[in-house]
Amino acid sequence: MRWDHLTERPAPAGDAALFAASAVTTRTFDTPEFRGITFHEVRARSILNRVPGASRMPFEWTVNPYRGCTHACVYCFARKTHGYLDLDTGLDFDSQIVVKVNAPELLRRQLASRQWQGAHVAMGTNVDCYQRAEGRYRLMPGIIEALRDRANPFSILTKGTLVLRDLDLLVQASEVTEVGISVSVGFVDTALWRTVEPGTPSPQRRLDVVRTLTDHGIGCGVLMAPVIPFLGDEPEQLRATVAAIAAAGATSVTPLVLHLRPGAREWFMEWLARHHPRLVPRYERLYAAGAYAPTWYQRRITRYVHELAAEFGIGPADRAAPRRIRRPAPEPDALPDGRPEHEPTQLTLL
User: Fold this and answer.
1) Angle at the Cα of 46 from the Cα atoms of 44 and 51, rounded to 5 degrees
2) Fewer CB under 10 Å: which end of the chain, C or N?
3) In contact, 58 and 68? CB cutoff 8 Å
4) Residue 25 — φ and ψ, nearest 5°?
5) Which of 234, 242, 348, 241 lies closest to 293 in space, CA to CA?
6) DSSP 27
7) How many whole angstroms separate alpha carbon 263 and alpha carbon 289?
8) Which residues is 187 bridged to in the sheet?
9) What confidence tens digit (pLDDT) does each residue in 254-282 have?
């Protein structure tokens, strides 16, 4: 396994050196929730990661205390990053978890540096910082405390209900700086959830998190992601999801259509061939141009969700009034008249 990719510092050209064996501690636990999972505890050299300049993300810095994720979402775009460690992007991503055990102390030191200007820090944008491992390693309380003590703005995106364990810290931080929390709920279909997100709390439990945060004065938006073509994009499915999000008191809802980057694409398509073989040709056509669904499809989903959000009294921040559409959506397999566009139009957080 290559460990030099765990930090920002690039390895010298042609250098495939590993961390010394003493720098990595490998553990397994027999408790039911961690059975079959291996944890690699490392001491990272840097924890504040600069987002590449070419990225379309609305933030410049991230903190990722973990690599790999026991949520085991079959579509997770971060799967490719496990390949950098000579691990596979399928089962290894779900079961070989890298834990940066010194993340809180390292972040506190970096935030105190004279070079640090107090920029917004985003968490949960690669893998979930509130996955099951966090219940054992408890890295997030120290991370939130470090950000709170410097009054440094931050945001968290999660599918995990464990975020409520740190509710008091989040309230404290929100009193001195800007704190943004978003919960990812792409659908409320229980059968779909069990097959594509087997390691996550149920959608209803995640919506309970939204409700609890809102009740404690922390506005919480929902990233409706991913909207999965042919499996979760029927009008009645979208309506049920937006209605549940509204009932939970979400401050906003932002839909994102499934995208399939290398690493995730192969794993997802293998899963699709096992569970829904009839859909494989349709996916091959829809994603023929690359990782993103065609622009016409993304826009259709976004407009319909925004219309539903307006109907239920919620909507994404700073959203211009969408063009209202009442006609039935075309079959996903059928292209609209004229040449379809393929360039992505969405931000990609999941």
Assistant:
1) 125
2) N
3) no
4) -110, 120
5) 348
6) E
7) 16
8) none
9) 999 999 999 999 999 999 999 999 999 99
Between 30 and 291, where is the model more confident? Answer: 291
**Cα Rg of the chain (Å, integer):** 20
Residue 9: other Cβ atoms inside 10 A:
10
Please report which helix (H) or strand (E) contains residue 151, including its range: none
φ, ψ dihedrals at 48, nearest 5°: -85, 115
pLDDT-derived band at 84 (thresholds 50, 70, 90) equals confident
CA–CA distance from 214 to each of 171, 227, 252, 314 (Å)? 11, 24, 12, 14
User: Highest-confidence range of 41-55, 232-246, 308-322, by mean pLDDT?
Assistant: 232-246
Q: Which two tokens stand for residue 319?
A: 């959203």
In 129-142, which positions are buried (b, 16+ CB within 10 angstroms) versus exposed (e)? bbbbbbeebebbeb
Per-residue model confidence as pLDDT tens digits over 175-218? 999 999 999 999 999 999 999 999 999 999 999 999 999 999 99
Q: Whole-angstrom Cα distance, residue 122 to residue 161?
A: 18
Q: Which residues have C-beta within 8 Å of that of residue 250, sequence separation ≥ 6?
A: 183, 210, 214, 220, 221, 222, 314
Q: Decide if pLDDT at 345 tops 70.
A: no
In this prediction, residues 143-159 reach a mean pLDDT of 98
Judged by DSSP in three states, 203 sits in: helix
Residue 22 structure tokens: 């003493």
Tokens describing residue 37? 């999972």
Name residue 277's amino acid: P
